[in-house]
């Protein structure tokens, strides 16, 4: 069955910045941050200190992944321009999302350049307190912050613009389901995608149930299923807790609002990439038609709208026009 990976990170040059400082590549896929935290970011064979387009295409071809949504994250450093270059060369295969720090003095200029010149039609907001904006800025209310509000006001002039949000788990100040619900009501023409299914944790499915019930009446909020295994601490296939959480989500919000994704490369260092999609087939949660939506149709509808693809095809970078 063909698939769209709705949560893929390309890394041309590692430029991480989080609360524990900047990253330093050690080679062989390993990285150490200024704080001394050391981890593997890239699976063996994917890249020593990067995960570039050629490597991503090979992974996709090996697993029958037809398309991918290219996201940003503080874990790798924003790769906005590289994502645009890759997607511009293959706009029917890649949908790029850019990230922005709303606290930057030229934030509005940055947003307009990416939307008006580079043709982006998706924004990734990584606001979590464990690696996003609230890891290196003081916490703020997503629905009340004027800086973020100005950006969303502008994006709302492009109906169907996708706004992807990673707001961390329930232990973090960034975890603000009510604020996100308010934003979805305020901007009904924006498509919000809440990443990692609102971070379900073992023993807290009642919290997930309450949050999904809050979002259920808001048709412009969908959810991706990336990295649920990492969040739950499950490395034993077929990930029974993740199956339970996704079954609950289908029951409350329906299969049309769930998007498959991996959150590679990092998530593929914990679990096999192939198993990170086959678990949904083996779970028996979805009919074949529903699984086709989760694997492909829902991401196609949100990220690969005809006008989105057209904007990317028509995009140009005036800064480099005329260069040899």
Descriptors:
alpha/beta, 324 residues, four-stranded antiparallel beta sheet, TIM Barrel
- Mean pLDDT metric: 96
**CATH homology superfamily:** Metal-dependent hydrolases
Shape: globular
Question: How is the biggest beta sheet arranged?
Answer: 6 strands, parallel
What are the segments in which pLDDT stays under 50 over at least 5 consecutive residues?
Answer: none
Q: Count of helical segments?
A: 12
Distance between the termini: 43 Å
Keywords: Lyase
InterPro entries: ACMSD (IPR032465), Amidohydro-rel (IPR006680), Metal_Hydrolase (IPR032466)
GO molecular function: carboxy-lyase activity; hydrolase activity
Organism: Lactobacillus delbrueckii subsp. bulgaricus (strain ATCC 11842 / DSM 20081 / BCRC 10696 / JCM 1002 / NBRC 13953 / NCIMB 11778 / NCTC 12712 / WDCM 00102 / Lb 14)
Q: TL;DR?
A:
This protein is α/β, with parallel strands linked by helices and 324 residues long. The protein has helices at residues 53-62, 80-89, 107-117, 133-136, 146-155, 177-186, 205-215, 228-232, 240-253, 275-283, 288-303, 306-314; strands at 3-9, 17-18, 21-27, 30-33, 38-40, 65-71, 94-96, 98-99, 122-126, 162-166, 191-194, 221-224, 258-259. The radius of gyration is 18 Å and the shape is globular.
Structural overview:
- The relative contact order is 0.14.
- This protein has 324 residues and is of the alpha/beta class.
- It is globular.
- The chain has one domain: Alpha-Beta Barrel (TIM Barrel), CATH 3.20.20.
- Helix 3 packs parallel to helix 5 (146-155) and helix 7 (205-215) packs parallel to helix 9 (240-253).
- The protein contains 12 helices and 13 strands.
